[in-house]
Amino acid sequence: MKSTPSDGERARPLLVLVDGSSYLYRAYHALPQFNNSRDEPTGAVYGVTNMLRNLLKEYTPDMIAVVFDAKGRTFRDDLFEAYKAHRPPMPDDLSSQIEPLKQIVSALGLACLCIDGVEADDVIGTLATHGDQTIDTLISTGDKDMAQLVAPHVTLLNTMTQQRLDRDGVIAKFGVPPERIVDYLALIGDTSDNIPGIPGVGPKTAAKWLQEYGTLDEIVAHAADVKGKIGEKLRAHLDRLPLARELATIRCNVSLDITAEQLRPRAPDRDALLTLYQRLEFKRWLGELLNDAPARPGDSADTSKETPRSADTAKPPPRYETILDRTSWDRWLARLSTAEQFSFDTETTSLDYMRAEIVGVSFALETGSAAYVPLAHDYAGAPAQLPREEVLAALKPLLENPAVVKVGQNLKYDMSVLARYDIHLDGVRYDTMLESYVLNSTASQHDMDSLALKYLAHRTVHYEDIAGKGSQQRTFNQIEIEQAAPYAAEDADVALQLHETLWPKLEALPGLRRIFRDMEMPLVPVLSRMERHGVLIDTGQLKELSAELNRRMEEVEVQAYEAAGGPFNLGSPKQIQEILFERLQLRVLKKTPKGQPSTAEPVLQELAIHYPLPQLILDHRALSKLKSTYADKLPELLDPETGRVHTSYHQAVAATGRLSSSNPNLQNIPVRSPEGRRVRAAFVAPPGHCILSADYSQIELRILAHLSQDRGLLAAFNGGEDIHRATAAEIFATPPEQVTAEQRRSAKAINFGLIYGMSAFGLGRQLGIDLEAASQYMDLYFTRYPDVKQFMDETREAARRLGYVETLFGRRLYLPEIHSSNRQRRQYAERAAINAPMQGTAADIIKLAMIRLDVMLRDAPDLGTMIMQVHDELVVEASLERSLETAGIVRETMSSAASLSVPLEVDVGTGPNWGAAH
Predict the structure, then answer these.
(1) What is this structure's pTM?
(2) What angle do CA 669, 445, 503 make, to 5 degrees?
(3) Which CATH number fits domain 535-645: 3.60.20.40, 3.50.50.60, 1.20.1060.10, 2.40.110.10?
């Protein structure tokens, strides 16, 4: 079909009618690309809004209305009491999106129609029919019923699939013209609306009859001529057809008091959209709005003195000063020297804290006022700047003064960079990244750009805005001061604004305030010291391991080729898919979003239970990952100055409170495989030292015993029993000494599976037993440990009631999908509700242990230095002479980090390398 002419070309006005209710429902249930994957409660709103924005951009209509169904009964309910009666109540997380969507529609300047007692279809039909002779009408809908409205100047558009239907399109799709669509619908019925049709009559039969007989009335008149069982069904249900036809007919004579002028798009309400996009966290559109902010009096491109910059027109423009002379610097230094608190940020040449050089520093004493001190911009034509050594020397007493409160974003980085200049940042009291993370770990990302949009409705200047992207991106020292200054000053200003927004929220929640004050903030300098100390690695061992892994991969390849019946690329999902599911005809367990058979790891693991090739593919992947990620990569990460590897720990990533790490990722080195142990063996101690590994023993099961207060678990742990053997003895009613290795393995799978909310199906798959046997194991477990079952039930109920769960120390994990109508998402949230209190408590305990151990080791530096934290394990580079003493201190510190109803046991080992110590 020829596309609708653009605004400048079309001869007739264009009216667009959008089926709002239908799209909201479809965006919620159907297409993933229309959902905001991070936040389900606003996902459908996002999808429909995105559709509307694209519709407006492409068609620039002269008139437009978004039409919604009204609550309550309509004439169809009066005609047929069972009309839509089978539909379940609308899910809460869908109904809650109706009002925000309507608010956005109005804020976009579009007519939002919802007529009492009338369905959206009938409102759209009336508007489309009345305008047919004078205007072009485009009906945006995914509802097949609307096909009856297609006429010479009325076209349908399914904006989700981009399918357009004119008269020929309707005939091609349904087999009948628009004027026969009602007859067609009456014959086939509509299960979604509970409209009864003729049993057994589908779209092909209905279209065939209408092509043969012309109309529904003629089909009824010739019902006796229809052969076979389908003819019998037609004759037996002829009485249904009049009602079905009336229910399916869109009424085009609804009394509407609406003028063409009311349908003309208005200018969007920018302030209302700002509020809505901020509340719903639609960051990209919020950023677009803020970028399009009109210029204000006082805005200037000259940043050499003071640079007003603000995206929020409701606030006065900020005062950003660039300090290039001693008089200005002395004035700011005097202000900083008398301040009790200030926001601080460094600008550097690199994200690598071990190599970054300071290019400038910025400060903010009050919101809306900040200064940038450029120190090492060295591009051609750069103006004279204050000497870096002189400025840092003047700042050193202030930055090291614990009584002067420092505010910033991700201050661990600044702390590590300053340490290279012999400045030991102290008084770090408020980190806005951690304030946001503790307040709600799952609500958003915790970088400054995201937080500014979420909490301040402010789009910050992004680094790419001034430095460029990709291979052409400049380092900060190469950026003109006129561009660099407002960016840097804004960092300090926004950090202070975020603190003033976030801290009152944290203060109002004592449990979270304690997590922030007593755990997360004290951990910052501990992690900074660990990162900067780093760990030695033996590159020779890694080179040997790389060669060995390569040989192993070649061996696995040969075996895989034999199992597959020929060579293929083991790194190609497409080729693996073809061999497993086409050549070998293995059962398809799961499909990708594009409908192809999945070759993801969980799928291969399940197939590997019965077939050799999937296991070989998994083995090859594991070996390849070890080789590329560790054996080959670790030597490249060696710092040339220290000769050590320096990871980066992240406090604000894992939702449960656990630390993560990168460059290298220490958390993902396999513990159980021989190859993984070889990687660990390459982490070595320097001469005169050993590696000391201290690992909490079964800490999450011990936390489960404490939280559930189950008498059986408490007795087993307090009696020093092997918990898996004790569990097996309970489940299988066997004396502990007679428990077999297989029974203990099953009990271990149940013990750890419970922590992660494993179902009987998951247990059966892991143990290789049928569902019935796995269910019996689970039932026996809960019979023997009834308080565990009660704890899990109560935890799930509390999560549904509160929307979050808490660790023993008060850390919260919010579960926005706990009420989701999507069963998989809801079940995932329920599993997280069980796991989070245990995993989060374990994370809290080891953080407390790290803080206390750091104090002890700093007081006695010859004992050793904490160098790594991995899951439930702390690693110390200890003095050989005093390793026994160090081991005792580490064990005592970790085991006393929390007081539980069962002892916290710590396994400690030492050796020349990490592999030998663990």
Answers:
(1) 0.78
(2) 115
(3) 1.20.1060.10
